[in-house]
Specification:
The chain contains seven helices and 13 strands. The chain is of the alpha/beta class and 304 residues long. Helix 6 runs parallel beside helix 7. The protein starts with 28 loop residues before the first strand and ends with a strand.
């Protein structure tokens, strides 16, 4: 943001000056607004005093979203696993299903005996029909957004796939907003440059997911999504799995289905429609395909 100046007259009988600043965000990410400094000068230019009044503050610009009318409640039908459905149907406290403690869980649900036996806090699953949880895995591999093979999207293959990736980030934000309204928790996962799985949304839900999407970057050395998803299962995230990518091959589709056997429902969100063989693999694995094309390139997004 460039330096801005404004002039205001101050004095004993002059109303207080109000300075309004508008900033137009062109790109997602983090930036600074400020600081604001007041410079006081006498009419003759003999005295000049600069006084900071507002310090610089970080502003996080989250990605926009697009309508996903086709992503309705039916897409989540059956997302609650059979194991969740059995919880709370009777029996003693020791018969209740346990899972590791997460920040925000009521302390009354901690099973102290099992926690001591297992060496870490565990809580009881005490509700019979808990809403499902949702995982959004964003593919950050550059190769997934290059050479998309569509004439109407040829411009997205320029600049190393960066433009296509930015659209995928918008798709991920759109899917996150849609799933957050229908699930108990939404978590964003992606591959970090240090080789570990990056999680966003464990505590703050949708807000943390959108902030996480403001920070992701496309990379040439990133791991495949199928290498990231096993780390998600270890964190007790279950229910819905949504994978956002630029394109998906038959081999990748088979690996996705295999990597999410424990999930009861999956969605593949892509920029370009996948090949029929890819749809077939996903259909047989119980997945749905959500195509969210670039605005103006083809018809509106559809869910199959």
């Amino acid at each position: 943001m460039t330096n801005a100046e404004t002039y205001a007259t101050v004095g004993r009988r002059t109303p207080p000056a109000v300075l309004d600043v508008e900033a137009l965000a062109m790109h997602r990410g983090r930036g600074l607004v400020g600081p604001v400094t007041i410079r006081v000068e006498d009419p003759f230019g003999l005295l000049r005093v600069d006084r900071p009044v507002v310090r610089a503050e970080e502003v996080v610009v989250v990605p926009a979203s697009v309508p996903l009318a086709a992503l309705d409640t039916g897409a989540l039908a059956g997302a609650v696993s059979a194991d969740e459905g059995r919880v709370g149907q009777g029996g003693s406290a020791d018969d209740s299903e346990l899972r590791p403690y997460r920040p925000g869980d009521p302390i009354r649900r901690v099973h102290w005996g099992q926690s001591a036996r297992r060496g870490e806090l565990h809580v009881r699953q005490t509700t019979q029909a808990q809403p499902p949880e949702a995982v959004i895995a964003l593919d950050v591999r550059r190769e997934s957004y290059q050479r998309l093979g569509r004439d109407d999207l040829a411009e997205l293959s320029d600049l190393g796939g960066d433009a296509a990736f930015e659209h995928a980030v918008v798709v991920a934000a759109s899917v996150a907003r849609a799933l957050a309204a229908r699930t108990s928790r939404v978590v964003l996962v992606s591959d970090d440059p240090d080789g570990i799985t990056r999680h966003a949304g464990d505590a703050g839900g949708l807000t943390d997911v959108l902030v996480g999407l403001a920070d992701v970057r496309v990379r040439s050395d990133a791991r495949d999504v199928t290498e990231v998803l096993p780390d998600v299962r270890g964190r007790d995230v279950h229910g819905m799995t949504a994978v956002v990518t630029g394109r998906c091959t038959a081999e990748q589709a088979a690996e996705l289905v295999s990597a999410t056997i424990g999930s009861s429902r999956g969605i593949l969100a892509t920029i370009v429609p996948p090949e029929p063989v890819v749809r077939g693999i996903l259909d047989r694995g119980g997945w749905r395909t959500l195509v969210v094309p670039v605005a103006g390139a083809s018809a509106q997004g559809s869910l199959r």
